[in-house]
Design brief:
Helices cover 1% and strands 43% of the residues. It has 352 residues and is mostly beta strands. The strands form 6 sheets. Strands 16-17-18-19-20-21-22-23 form an 8-stranded antiparallel sheet, with no helix packed on it. It has a 4-stranded antiparallel sheet with strand order 1-2-3-4, with no helix packed on it. A 4-stranded antiparallel sheet has the order 5-6-7-8, with no helix packed on it.
Length: 352
């Protein structure tokens, strides 16, 4: 509509829809442009989504989307960074998709975001990614916030909330901490100053009973604290502690030194060292770690050898979902180890 109040011809997108897969669209209004994302399918139900941009709302230009075969549901923009949420198309009857995110900065090309964080046990709503869904996304602070749902195998569901500082990686917030364990579904959200406002329901929306509707108001996740001038950086802080599982443990210190202990499976009463004394692990190796390519990775060298693994071997340790780390020495996997203090992680039962 023009400033005078007279309507002008609407922009018609080349977006077909048909029974069983009606076309939908989402508009994003930014300070300098409008963005239009259409959710369409072809006659044989293949994804045909499209993205358009306009500076005045009258002349629209088609913009590229990530590789074909994707379905795109929602978009948001914060400064020069734009994000898309959606999934990879699935040919199954249910037409389910595993959630994905994409991001771009300015007019550069699209990049695939990190795999969606599913949360940490023993929180509720920690289910496989194919059972998680992002339903809305919005700019928040200098990053983004998204809401959705996590559905378990028994078809029960709880609300879900993710934050992202850059649009590349999303951190899921604990469901019990923010109260989303009492909400079966979340519908939409808005951000006002430092508040996130979410519309949710204690039951599935198809019940259409307004008595179940809930408004949730929360604070934006605090940004990373700026270290004081005298603070000493701790690049390996996420790895410090004793990680364990039923047959081994590894203790990592602030300076990167580590001590790896393991069961030799022979008792000292029957065998010369190295040997186990009851439940005390007799096998030992040590080494030094430093920060890897990302904050979720540590790399280093084994100084004291392991059986069949000589001193000087390379070691890589990476943070994994479900309170675990993964250890690889000379490209050979040594297994998943539970976070300090955790009795269960990533399918393992802790050694404590």
């Amino acid at each position: 509509m023009e400033k005078s109040g007279h309507s002008t011809k609407l922009f018609e997108t080349p977006c077909g829809g048909h029974e069983g897969s009606e076309a939908t669209a989402e508009v994003l209004v930014a300070d300098d442009a409008f963005h239009l994302l259409t959710n369409c399918t072809t006659g044989d139900f293949r994804p045909a989504d499209q993205l358009f941009a306009s500076r005045d709302g009258r002349r629209w230009k088609k913009e590229p989307l990530p590789d074909n075969g994707n379905e795109f549901d929602h978009l948001a923009r914060n400064g020069d960074t734009m994000v898309l949420t959606g999934g990879l198309a699935d040919d199954s009857v249910e037409h389910t998709t595993e959630p994905h995110t994409w991001y771009r900065e300015g007019n550069s090309g699209w990049h695939t975001g990190a795999p969606l964080d599913v949360g940490r046990l023993p929180d509720v709503g920690v289910v496989p990614r194919k059972n998680q869904e992002m339903l809305a996304v919005a700019p928040a602070g200098s990053g983004f916030v998204a809401i959705g749902s996590a559905r378990a195998a028994d078809n029960s569901a709880v609300g879900a909330l993710w934050f992202s500082a850059d649009g590349k990686k999303w951190a899921k917030q604990p469901t019990r901490t923010n109260g989303f364990d009492t909400l079966r579904s979340l519908a939409t959200l808005t951000v006002w100053k430092k508040k996130v406002v979410v519309l949710g329901s204690r039951r599935a929306w198809e019940t259409s009973d307004p008595a179940n509707a809930r408004i949730w108001i929360g604070d934006l996740a605090p940004g990373p604290r700026s270290p004081s001038p005298t603070a000493t950086p701790r690049p390996l802080a996420r790895f410090v502690g004793t990680w364990s599982w039923s047959g081994a443990s590894i203790t990592i210190k602030d300076d990167g030194s580590f001590d790896y202990r393991y069961l030799t499976m022979v008792q000292c009463s029957e065998h010369a060292p190295p040997c186990d004394k009851g439940s005390e692990m007799g096998g030992r190796a040590s080494g030094v770690l430093h920060e890897g390519r990302t904050g979720d990775e540590a790399v280093g060298t084994v100084v004291e050898a392991l059986p069949n693994t000589p001193a000087g071997s390379s070691i890589t340790i990476s943070r994994e979902p479900y309170m675990a780390i993964d250890i690889t020495i000379n490209k050979m996997g040594y297994g998943l180890f539970c976070e300090p203090g955790a009795h269960r992680c990533a399918g393992h039962v802790g050694g404590e």
